Every structure is written in C-alpha cells, then in structure tokens.
Amino acid sequence: KGVQLIITEFYRST
Amino acid sequence: MLELRLVQGSLLKKVLEAIKDLVTDANFDCSATGFSLQAMDSSHVALVALLLRSEGFEHYRCDRNISMGMNLNNMSKMLKCAGNDDIITIKGDDGSDTITFMFESPTQDKIADFEMKLMDIDSEHLGIPEAEYHAIVRMPSAEFSRICKDLSSIGDTVVISVTKEGVKFSTRGDIGAANIVLRQNTTVDKPEEATIIEMNEPVSLTFALRYMNSFTKATPLSSMVTISLSSELPVVVEYKIAEMGYVRFYLAPKIEE
Q1: For B31-62, how does the pLDDT look when each residue is reduced to its tens digit (9 = 90+)?
Q2: Cβ–Cβ contacts within 10 Å for residue B76, how many?
Q3: CA–CA separation, B134 vs B132, rounded Å?
Q4: How far is A9 from chain B (nearest CA, A)?
Q5: In sequence order, what are the residues at sequence separation of 6 or more whose Cβ sits closer than 8 angstroms to the Cβ of residue B46?
Q6: How many CB atoms neighbour CB B176 within 10 A?
Q7: What is the nearest CA distance from A1 to chain B, expressed in angstroms?
Q8: Do A11 and B126 touch (CB under 8 A)?
Q9: HSE-up (13 A, CA, CB side) for residue B212
Q10: pLDDT digits (tens, 9 = 90+) for B69-94
C-alpha cells in the first residue's frame, strides 16, 4: 500500500 | 554548570510520555534559548522536535551549550517518581556523565533527587527550514486523537485531504472503509473547541496511522493541535506547550508505488 518515504529525504543534515 | 527549575514539573513528565515510545535515545540540547531535542524514530520515518524556552523556567542557568544523551525510557522512569504538582529542577555539572532530577513538593516538605547516567549518542541533526504550507488545520487535540484511534481499527494508513469543504480523514482496510469530515467551526463557546482550516491550495497526503497514533500521546500537553500539510513535505503535527514552546512531530508521507 504505497512506499513509505523517510524524513532524511526531505531535510538535510546540519 | 546547568540548573533548570521548572515550577510546573508535570509539563516535563507529559513531554516524556509524549515522545518516549517514538524515540529510544536522544540528545537533549541546552543553550541560552532553552532546553530542546531533535530526534528521529529508529526507521527515520518520523522526527520529533521539542523546545522548552528558557523564559518558561523559573530559574535557567546554562553556562555553555551542552548536549546530553539520555535514554528516554530511563528518564521517564525517573520523572514518574515526581508528583504531578512537584517542582522539577534539572542539574548537571560540566564534564559529568550523570544528570540529576530534583523533585520538590509544593509545600517543600519532600525533596528527592534522582541521578541518571548519561550516554553518548551519535545522532544526526537535521535543518528544518520554515515552509509555506498548502493547508493548516487547527483542531481540538482530543478530537484528533479520537479520529486516529477510530481509523486505526479499520486500516493502517490515513489519507488527510483538505479542500474548501473541510478536512477529510479516510482509511480503508480488510473489513471496509471510513471517512471522517470536519468542517471549519468557529462558533463554539470556547476557543479550544474550534476547528480552523486555512487552505491556500487543496492537498491530499497519505500517512501511516501507527505514527499518528504515537503522536497523539502528546494530547495531555495541549487542548489544540495544529496539522500543517504540503504536498512535497512531511506533515507537521504540533502541540503547543503553554508559555514554553512546543512538541512538533514530522511524518514523511507514503506515496503510490
């Protein structure tokens, strides 16, 4: 039922 | 040297209950701004960001920026030993591998201190830029919790759609399907019973209900929850902590294969 994306695909490491 | 005195100690107890099932170990950061935390769950699908601003503490001393690794389950065990009306003081010494939680009863007739071992945690810190969201829904936190719980008895995922009609929460599972629509409602007796929908563009996103249900453990922190949605971004589920800051949960969406 769809692919679960992960947070690190959206926000970059500082 | 670190000394943070929080008169409303129950807030810290509630914060721990809100996040300890999502995150096992986390670094708490202490700076002039406040006491904060950013951590992802073990599968990196959700992120929690906590801020307790320094102004919200009765006494706030933090001589230098410091990051303290804590096991949240152990921290929760210790904070459960504080009474709901207790004043909680967090104390730490430079270079120490422990932190002390001091609990004072409101009448000062019982004073306890609990020393907890710190740990080294190698965690990734992410930069979360301010974003323009397509839709922002403000609603009673208990209602949001009820919806997530009800839908998770039917399906595993929730589709949250905001249109000019309102906000729709939908799920589908082996036994059937469910749709719950909330319309904007500002004609209530108390502001904390209102549902306010700000929509710049219609948006529809799919999320795992397991995480949403975990976020609702923060319900005791705030009577209202704010859900911010944008089609290219994780949803932000925010519980404001009165006078002090917030707990924000970020959840990455699911997409069609």
Answers
A1: 999 999 999 999 999 999 999 999 999 999 99
A2: 17
A3: 7
A4: 9
A5: A7, B22, B40, B211, B214, B215, B249, B250, B251, B252
A6: 9
A7: 7
A8: yes
A9: 31
A10: 999 999 999 999 999 999 999 999 98
